[in-house]
Design brief:
alpha/beta, 2-enoyl-CoA Hydratase, Chain A, domain 1, 6-stranded parallel sheet, 3-stranded antiparallel sheet, 10 helices, elongated, disordered C terminus, transmembrane, Peptidase_S49, serine-type peptidase activity, transmembrane helix
């Protein structure tokens, strides 16, 4: 065995030792919680080995442990013997999800499903969500793929709304501790520019075959009846989202509703519910390898799947989207 392999093995042992030290410190703190004086903002645990664990509003230990585990998974992958026929396909789903994203991702997922050399698929999702139709189409394709081979979803930063909707089609979800996940909900955007049109001397003549054919058009406001119809529509989309999460995460619909306020959550705060494990990319690969019952799998990343920067909301539309990302959609500053 060459020196490089021995270096990797040594590094694994060092990381395991570091992980043990952190785990012992956490256990010590849980068993022997220290008293807190009135002028302290959070308890501080000091060990004889000059190891200090500060516990306040933010628990840094969880992040450090997840990072150590991810490094160990990386080094284990380097020293594991490569097995023929055990290839992992990494499929990036980045940015706002629209028709272009679906056009790129769906054919790829179908090809991977039929490719016998691919043993598992890792969905690398860094997305705030997007348009309802493309999101649901990609989710449906992920579900079909998961019937044929293991699928794991991973995020290092953001898996929100439609991005999370797609992720629940996978068997497992892995996320970095401070990644934002969730934003379970639907938002409908309607711009009423009728006054703006009048101020600029623009008159719109509309010829339509039905009373609601121009419902949601920007040149007029919505009628009370149309507002009711839109509320029913987005509630239908919302119920579909709830059901998808309920099925994918093995939770009741009522349990899912506890996380359906529209907000995102740090992954470290929803482990065991919205997320299965904390860690980085190598942790996600390790989880997938366990589902594939292999080790040392070859990893292939499929590139050029990012959504184009130019993306606009024209008229009105329903979105599985984190509302913080509405501004770039309409070209605002």
């Amino acid at each position: 065995m060459d020196d490089r392999i021995w270096k990797y093995i040594s590094a694994v042992l060092i990381l395991l030792l570091a992980l043990s030290v952190v785990s012992i410190a956490v256990l010590y703190y849980q068993v022997n919680p220290p008293a807190v004086s009135g002028n302290q903002t959070g308890p501080v645990v000091e060990t004889p080995a000059n190891f200090t664990l500060v516990c306040g509003g933010f628990n840094a230990t969880e992040t450090e442990v997840a990072e150590l585990r991810d490094q160990i998974a990386f080094l284990q992958g380097l020293v594991s013997p490569k097995q023929s026929g055990s290839t992992i396909a990494v499929v990036p789903i980045f940015g706002i999800i629209d028709e272009y994203t679906a056009l790129q991702v769906i054919p790829l997922l179908r090809n991977l499903a039929m490719n016998e050399s691919i043993g598992g698929v890792l969905l690398w999702i860094e997305s705030p969500g997007g348009v309802v139709g493309p999101v649901m189409s990609i989710y449906s394709e992920v579900k079909k793929l998961a019937l044929l081979k293991p699928v794991v979803a991973y995020t290092g930063g953001l898996m929100a709304s439609g991005g999370y909707y797609i992720a629940v089609g996978a068997q497992k979800i892995v996320a970095s501790p401070l990644a934002e996940v969730g934003s379970i909900g639907v938002i409908y955007v309607h711009y009423d520019l009728e006054k703006n049109y009048e101020m600029n001397g623009i008159k719109v003549n509309v010829f339509k075959t039905g009373e609601h054919k121009d419902m949601g058009a920007e040149w007029r406001d919505l009628t009370p009846e149309e507002r009711k119809k839109i509320a029913e529509m987005i509630n239908t989309y919302f119920q579909a989202f709830l059901n998808a999460v309920s099925e994918g995460r093995n939770m009741t619909v009522d349990e899912v509703k506890n996380f359906s306020t529209g907000e995102t959550w740090f992954a470290k705060n929803v482990t065991g519910t919205l997320v299965d494990e904390l860690g980085g990319m190598d942790t996600a690969i390790n989880v997938l390898e366990k589902l594939m019952n292999v080790s040392g799998a070859k990893v292939v990343v499929y590139k050029n799947l990012e959504t184009p920067e130019e993306f606009g909301v024209y008229g009105s539309t329903s979105l599985y989207l984190d509302p913080r990302y509405l501004t770039p959609l309409v070209g605002g500053g």
